[in-house]
Automatic annotation (TrEMBL):
Keyword field: Carbohydrate metabolism, Glycosidase, Hydrolase, Polysaccharide degradation, Signal
Species the sequence originates in: Microbispora triticiradicis
Pfam families the record matches: CBM_2, fn3
Protein name in the entry: Alpha-L-arabinofuranosidase
All residue ranges annotated as the Fibronectin type-III domain in the record: 481-571
Example GO BP: polysaccharide catabolic process
GO molecular function terms listed in the Swiss-Prot or TrEMBL record: hydrolase activity, hydrolyzing O-glycosyl compounds; polysaccharide binding
Amino acid sequence: MVVAVALAGAVLTTPGTRAQAATPAVEVTVNAREGLGTVPDTAYGLNQAVWDGNMNTPASVDLLGKAGVQMMRYPGGSYGDGFHWETSTVSGGGYVAPGTDFDSFMGTVRGVGAQAIIIANYGSGTAQEAADWVKYANVTKGYGVKYWEIGNEIFGNGHYGADWELDYHESKSPATYANNVVEYARAMKAVDPTIKIGAVVTDPGNWPDGVVGDGDTAAWNQTVLSIAGPYIDFVIMHYYPNHTTAADVLQQVRLLPGELEQVRRQIDQYAGRNGPNIGIALTETSSNYQSDTQVGGLFTADVYFAALENGVFTVDYWDTRNGMGEVTTAPDGTTSYGDGGLLSSGNCNSDSVCEPPLNTPFAPYYALQMLSRVALPGDTLVKAASDNRLVTVHAARGADGGLSVELINQDPGNAYTVHLGYDGWTPSGATPTVHTLGSGYTSIATSKQGTASTQVIPPYSIVTLKLTPSATNPVSTTLTAPGSPAASDVTAGTATVSWRPSTGGAVTRYAVYQQFGTNSVLLGESTSTSFTARNLVPGTSYTLNVLAVDQKGHLSMPSDPVTFVTGTPRDSTCAVTYNLATGWGSGFVANIGVTNTGPTPITGWTLAFTFPAATESVSGSTWNGTFSTDGRHVVVTPAGSNTYLAPNGGNTVSLGFVGNQTGANPPPASFTLNGTVCTTTYSY
């Protein structure tokens, strides 16, 4: 429940006071025309673990219901690959607390008003055991469990060296896992064809993504998606920043969108015709560093929306109660008990240091509770950004025409005066309702303060503004957003986008906007439900929204975004091959082949390309070329005797480099040879 309290401290005074004048300024822009997707009814999730004897208590139902939990995962991480649902036992002897059986769990799910996502036992189970679970859950008991994962972190089964995930299969390879996923999916859907099946993938930029194991022909994701892609409905990622300071952990969320985009491209490339139907679930995440403090709260507020804005349909926090660990001091001076849960387990350590009493909420609990203050299922997430890396922003438009803006201050020592500007939406002059979770708060505080254009946010805080539209707002409240835009016939210079029509009123035309950060560019308009964009740049990523326009010129809510990458010319006078040979989480090896397909020989050449992500770069190790870099832009010239390129494909110059990566490492979208855009093909 929201508790209205008086907000202490000069940082929360009204605009124009001396305290505000002393705080640094931050500029924030919210563009209501740039839609990032609709919030699903599975968005705000949480892991439950069968070692937690308090999992199914009335207190759990009450607290998780008040937190707005929509999805509950069971039976708990790696336990999923040892858990046998009929007996509530774990292979290998893992502890299962009394009262944590499947039926008791489902009672809690129903009490909270959530949905369940279940880990079917891959490591020590069988497809038949999983199918029997589906039958019991959905046929015998009528629970209607829709989402089923096949295993947990199966790539940790020893195939790549590290061995933490139980897997009794003789072969631990990605091909074995993928073929078994197909068997599981067939058996489980034979019982209930309406269920959704998920397969495990690796997170780009994190081990073992890109690693090609002994005896394999490709890395995990390519192998699993190529084999299981036609049979699955979603993929499963986990996201834990691997850093040892609060500042680094909080900044790591900026890398997540690029990693999700790369997974999306891998799905589209390898999963065949079913690729566009495959969703992404982030079924485990937490700050992994002082997560029971405000550090974890700030991370939680940021990571949920960062994932949802980039196409994830559920984000599931790890976990409800996790138990006490190492005791440290957070940057705001508060105590971290090393507990990865939302709620205290009430433990004490050998030094007689004790956590708060059982079920006391930690900061991430209130951050999770804050999510529903920002956006409810059916609301539209829209683009927002700040000019300060320590202040992150998320925003959502509600069905009532209102706008919510979440401001996250990662600075433990400074308040900021935030100046907000709006594009495609006009706020009223009413004083906003403001929800605040500051350092050390034991509830979300609510007040009326500031204006729609100026707010002061405390250090280490999460602040949500609830704004109402002006009477002259240029937004239609009756027209629905155009539905399900999709790109087709994408070439080097053109692409056709089609969508379902808007309803709720008379539509005069549809406006198609391209996203440029928080700026929108009108690409064109159409009186039908399709539009062909022309004169596009080869090898370039485009993200578009479609909005309906009514007779008064008012715009509807933006459609979900549609993203595509233009190709390279088929009839170019040069050709490039880009082969991502292997990777190891923090680096990769890329081989490049350059061919002159034109009629004129080339003596002396310059190859140029740009990395799509700031998280990748050329290391000092290169071959058969002289590499120079300027930011993400790379220029390669001949080294030694490979200056000559014969006409008509007479020879190919081979070169390459070792790359560094701190996150995603998508391939360059295009290459130019002496200024000409080349036909480019990729292999992995």
